[in-house]
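Q: Two folds, back to back.
A: First:
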Amino acid sequence: MAKQKVLLFGAASKTGNVLIAEALKRKYSVTAIVYDISKVTIKHPDLKVEYGHMMNKDDVENMAKGHDAVIGIHEPMSENPNEHVKAINSVIDGTKKAKVNRLLIIGHPVYRPVENTMEFYDSWKTVAWAQREALKRFQWESYLNWGYAYSAKLEPDPRSGRIDKQVNMVLATPLGESQIPLKNFAPHLLDKAVMQALHSRMELEFHI
């Protein structure tokens, strides 16, 4: 079986490094796309690091060609939530133009601490809005076999006012939603991104 080729945007983040390490452990070929090549310190024969920007759909298209799956990491920020929606639109359009039909986006701030304050809850509302808008965009897609990992809903306890720390992320797909434990999210998400790409290819070969 041919080695699986994964394109990863946002690879310089902590989340990106965890996914790179897991993908290399599985003997995948990884192309890591970053704004600053020096930010990726992992060295491996199956890892290629290139400069690029997931906000540029032409970059996405050119770099995605020849890969089995595209993974993008883009955490929405409360100060500019619309940037997340723009990034989602860009990577969806570029991936489709590259004729890659497997796309997984991680829109969950995996390593950002959850503060138990109403100020944090108020700022989180714009993040939740960006995630909802991104998910709507995916739900219109018919070509892509997609996955979108986002934050479980935060609500303060009406009795204590406490905001519980999240231990899961939600993974939305065309078939529905599931919970992914944050403590071991990388294997779950790579399974979703790559193994379903394998299944899709096998079905195509069978029908031919």
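A: Second:
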Amino acid sequence: MNSTEELAKYLLDIKAVKLNVKEPFTWTSGIQSPIYCDNRVVLSYPHVRDFVKKHLAELYTRHFPNADMLAGIATAGIAHGVLAAEHLDIPYCYVRPEPKKHGMKNQIEGHMPRNSQVVLVEDLISTGKSSLQAVDGVIKDGGQVQGIIALFTYGFKQAQEAFDQRNIPFHTLSNFEILSQIALKSDYINAEQFEAIQKFRVNPKNWQN
């Protein structure tokens, strides 16, 4: 079992991911989804947390050798980012979706020197909207975004196109395709449910039709 499959199995084992075709979950966007992924649950399991920390650090080292700091994307990416930064012994900050309305009105929390080469840390990538908001926040404050690392991606075409358009590379530890295969092999879902969630990955807005 490779690391992509291993994380998918961990997420299923600790119930960070829930799959339900009959009673879909409603996302903030209004999308009715047969999958709900809450990677914050990872923080409660030391062995999974340690796995994620080390492998996020490996993604950073392997794909972004010219970067000099990590920045977590609020809120779910903050903890994963700080763990990876601590493992790498590199500077760290985090990025809000938008500037605060009060106080210093910061969008970047922590010290990010101008022209820093930043890699953003996200817990999961769905449409890519929140990730690209964070990219804009870093750029506005004088940083340069090398790319994004994340625990998980749904693999939506919409997200890939959005990142490609902005020339922002991203790399994830696991993905929806692998997770659904692991779920099928472990009898977490049956063949009919597997087929339904594959339709969701291809067409998230109309998979039930």
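Q: And?
A: The domain at 3-202 is CATH 3.40.50.2020 (Rossmann fold).
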